[in-house]
Amino acid sequence: MSSGTESSGADTANSPLSVEEIKVAALAALTVAGSEAVLDEWRVSYLGRKSDLTNVLRSISSLPADDRKAVGASANLLRASLEEALAEKTQELRGAAGSVADALDVTLPGRRRRRGGLHPTTQTIRELTDAFGAMGFQVAEGPEVEWERYNFDALNIPAEHPARDSWDTFWLESPDGEGRSDMLLRTHTSPMQARIMEKADPPIRVVIPGRCFRYEATDATHEWHFFQLEGLAVDKGITFADMKGTLFEFARRIFGPDRKVRFRVDFFPFVEPGAEMAIDCFKCNGQGCSLCKGTGWIEIMGAGMVHPSVLRNVGYDPEVYTGFAFGMGVERIAMLRHGIDDVRQFAAGDLRFLSQF
Amino acid sequence: MKAPVSWLKEYVDINEPLHEVAHRLTMAGTEVGSIDQIGAEWGPVVVGHVQAVNPHPDADRLRLVTVEYGGEDGPAEVVCGAPNVAVGQNIAYAGIGAMLNDPYRGGATKLKRSKIRGVVSNGMVCSEKELGISDEHEGILVLPDDASVGTPLMDYLGDAIFDLELTPNRPDCLGVLGVARELAAIGGTAIREPDISYPEDGPPVDSLATIRIDDPDLCARYTATVLQNLTLGPSPEWLVKRLAAQGQASISNVVDVTNYVMFEYGQPLHAFDLDAVENHAIVVRRSYAGEQLTTLDGVQRELAPDTLVIADPEKSIGLAGVMGGANSEISDSTVNVLLESATFNGTNNRITARKLGMKTEATLRFEKGLRPGLSEVALRRATKLILEVAGGTAAQGILDAYPEKDDAVVTLTDEKLLKVMGVEYPEMQVIATLEGLGMEVERVGSSYEVRPPYWRPDIAIPEDVCEEISRIVGYDEVPMTTLSGRVPTWEPSLERDLREKVRASLANHGLQEIISYPTESDSAMTAVGAPTEYSPLRLENPMAQDQPYMRTTIRASVFRAAARNARTWRGAIALFEVGAAYLYSGEGLPEERQMVVGAFNGPRDNDSWVSDTGASDFYDAKGAVEAVLEDLGIEGGFEVTDDPAFAPGRCAAITVNGKSVGVVGEATRAVLEAVDCDRTPLAAFEIDLSALGEAIGESNAPRAYQPFTRYPSSVRDLALLVDTGVSAGAIRDVIAKNRLSQQIDVVDVYSGKGVPVGKKSLAVRVHYQSDTKTLTAKEIEKAEAAILKILGQELGAELRS
Ligand SMILES: [Zn+2]
């Protein structure tokens, strides 16, 4: 019997080693293995087709019948334990990859493309239209330079109506150079209510995002140029309760399922009854904070049942059809959701701002 | 509009905390912007009771006063110099820390514990001046005997003012009484109507004056009365204070009453000196052509046509509902007054006020359209108060020109109420709510016949009544239901879909979207090559004087943004904007053509060990366009072109299906200067989305699946030498014509050392593949030879040795 432990099983073919001897030799060789390549050799030597252990297993049939069972069992046990030891050693070597010659510095930045992005206003409009889209509202758009009659008259705001004071207006000069034209920069997206109803018959269920303008001084919360999202639903049997339910569902989708919603009375000449919708402040949960100016509520939009005069103006019979309309400031929603404190950032085109979204 | 709580309490009980009252007003539509507390700054000033007054040991004019004020440590001893302090009085006791006005130097100071001539004074007994209530400082303020000791003085003497943000439909709330009526309706409590009765001791009014309305379209009602033997003079304290809270200076007792009633009822009134009115005859008429009037403010005014004036038979004496005339003004010597309370047409009043630049408290109310019923009530109220503050006698009866009686009735059916609100309101609740608002309600069958009160001009249609019911019951009580019923059929919106795809594509390919103001200067638009066939529309009232035009190109905005960012942003600048060019073609609204402009400036990417951080150039802009077209599934071409914004030889037209849809290039020096860009190059592209949409046309359909060949491909490189003028595109086109070439990549372009002058070397990698078999080496060589032959013949290309 050989007592050598340094060599592989192939050298000792003429004098088969005992299972115990194989075990000692194999484990000793495994302990000093320092790379995956050496491990591979080790596997061939001790577990391969020509290894001592394989030889032992092959020769079992030639053993006395009494020994067969015991030798077979111990050889199989050894095979299992050597495979386990190999797996452990492999793991160990891989875990210490830092010491491997071809290892990578995984902290180096990866190869990637420059990041671009959509403007936060665009992103917000997409989320708003998606929320309403899920409730069957389609998206429409309309002109930014608008006729006075769509912006005001069709909406029950005739010339010299005191309510016109609520919409400070940019007027376009007459293209012939003679004074003011009857074109203006739309002060809200509401003119689209009339444009849409003129073209289509009920049922109407539509939201209209778009650029609007107000001739007023700018500060952190006022901008002369901004985006609104208008909404309109008209059909037989649409009620104020439907408006509340729809807008509440919208608020849940945009501001989360825990929000409370509140309607208070407000006035817009093109709706009756009119309302302003607020959600409970998500920053302080209605306790009062700087975001909600201590009221616990944050105004989100104006809304109301479409005024019968507006319906009549587009040829709808207000005794047959009812509906609701609403409008909200897109930047305002974006500001609330992202904690933006100055609306003037939106049109500044500054990457330090835009790259954050 | 300011509504002092002390004034409101004259008409309605207010027992809840003020913030709660304000909240309920706000919820019901009368928004309380803020509550201004008068006396809130006082701090620890309470009602005190004088228990003892003793002489000061070291000063004759000072005394030691023992004040019980409900404090835990018992009464306080205070040094006081006021002559009128006496045992048994209730007074205003200021504890240490109170904020009081310094009566000599002015301004608020904090009261400290101090020694006065050797005696410690634990607080102070206050004068009215120290409290900021009045200028009275001769003695201390003595409070009534029933004042409860220990009560904060603010609760007793302070006031709170609701600062209201009103909507234009509610001129009734431009009077304190109107706000009180709201509170009463919301709270379900009673209103205490002001007293409008007075002794009519004078002669019958029609023996003293006459009135006539010539233009009833502009004056629905004119009521007036005559007061004789008045004593003009200063107003009493209460009247001065109430007007002061409205920011209205006191003028004289008679004028002050007219203003007071305006702030109370919302009805403007005017008092004429009766003796200045010729024949004591009032005529309400449109102005004559060229008529002039000098108003109370001393300004002589040219009256436009359709200006409504109050006149006597000889001359105009007032601008109806705007301002009185100087010729009939109340003065110190006035003894007889004709008091006017009229209903003028709101629109006409507003036009006159705008034309003359005279927005006044009166026009603010008249322009909203008042009810004729209000004028008589206000007239009687003012007459009563004038008699109170200026003596004299009032005539018997009133003059009342009222051509057409206003008797608005609105019918609301049960069906309508349910149809609008989606909730059933019980009959009892509807009637009680509407009556609480002062409406007369009659139940007729399944309808309510509603007569709105004279102070509400805004109830005209059934929907208005729906709002009245629901807002007083509370919008919170309306249930929430989801939309049921028909969903509209889907309508395609190809232009919007295309625009949004382009937007997303550019963002995905590393460009940041910006949004700019759509106004522009003439010079910037010219500099960046705005289309010359459209003259831009100009704003009458631009926000920035140097940018008065609606932009006909969005290039300048995007270029400027790139230039600005170059000064503040460390990394790559790759921007784009999607916006309208406003193109006016002589009639109708301008076309709002959707344009996309992208701009690149500075490093291609952040400094990095792997990225290419060279300066962006033409090929970055072109790459973005190629990426967009590829995302859209369409093939584009690039052809040499000219554009005033881009440098010659560095500019290409973008073509799709043979139509030009945009341009890509590097900006000229002149453009860089115009947009203030210091860093070159500024590479950019512009895509006209409507042109792109048209060019795509029907090919916008979903991409059709192409079966791909399963046979292997072989790669061969061609190293070509060509004249510098030969384009890679031309070479590519030749190679592409060979039916076995499947993919062609230009992998290197080189000129310089080793390449003859006037030539360039181009390395092209070609993948050969057949969809019917595996190509043999021989077949590939044959294909390559054929390609080289044509390249040589058509483009003079030769293989580089
Ligand atoms: Zn809050």
Summarize the helix and strand pattern of chain A as letters: HHHHHEEHEEHEEHEEEHEHH
**CATH fold topology of the largest domain in chain A:** BirA Bifunctional Protein, domain 2
Q: Count of DSSP E strands of chain A?
A: 10
Q: Please, what is the oligomeric state?
A: heterodimer
Q: Which segments of chain B are poorly predicted (pLDDT under 50) over 5 or more consecutive residues?
A: none
Each distinct ligand: zinc ion
How much helix is in the residues of chain A? Answer: 25-40%
Please identify the top-level CATH class of the largest domain in chain B: Alpha Beta
How many domains of chain B, as an integer? 6
Give the SSE map.
The complex is a heterodimer of chains A (357) and B (801).
Chain A: H1 19-32, H2 36-47, H3 52-58, H4 65-95, H5 120-133, E1 138-139, E2 145-147, H6 148-151, E3 170-173, E4 180-185, H7 191-199, E5 204-213, E6 225-235, H8 240-255, E7 261-265, E8 271-280, E9 297-306, H9 308-313, E10 322-329, H10 330-338, H11 351-354
Parallel strand pairs in A: 1-5
Antiparallel strand pairs in A: 2-4, 3-4, 5-6, 6-10, 7-8, 8-9, 9-10
Helix pairs in contact in A: 1-4, 2-4, 5-10
Chain B: E1 2-4, H1 5-8, H2 18-27, E2 31-38, E3 45-56, E4 59-68, E5 76-80, E6 90-94, E7 99-101, E8 108-110, E9 114-116, E10 119-121, E11 124-125, H3 128-131, E12 142-143, H4 153-157, E13 159-165, H5 176-187, E14 210-213, E15 219-228, H6 237-245, H7 253-265, E16 270-273, E17 281-286, E18 292-294, E19 300-302, E20 308-311, E21 316-319, E22 323-324, E23 337-344, H8 346-356, H9 361-366, H10 372-390, E24 393-394, E25 399-401, E26 410-413, H11 414-421, H12 427-436, E27 440-444, E28 447-451, H13 462-473, H14 494-508, E29 512-513, E30 519-520, H15 522-527, E31 549-550, H16 555-568, E32 573-583, E33 591-601, H17 618-632, E34 636-640, E35 646-656, E36 659-667, H18 669-674, E37 682-688, H19 689-696, E38 714-723, H20 728-737, E39 741-750, E40 759-768, H21 777-795, E41 798-799
Parallel strand pairs in B: 14-17, 29-32
Antiparallel strand pairs in B: 1-13, 2-13, 3-4, 3-6, 4-5, 6-11, 6-12, 7-8, 9-10, 15-23, 15-24, 15-25, 16-23, 17-20, 18-19, 20-21, 21-22, 26-28, 27-28, 30-31, 32-33, 33-37, 34-35, 35-36, 36-37, 38-40, 38-41, 39-40
Helix pairs in contact in B: 6-7, 7-10, 11-13, 12-13, 14-17, 20-21
Bound molecules: zinc ion.
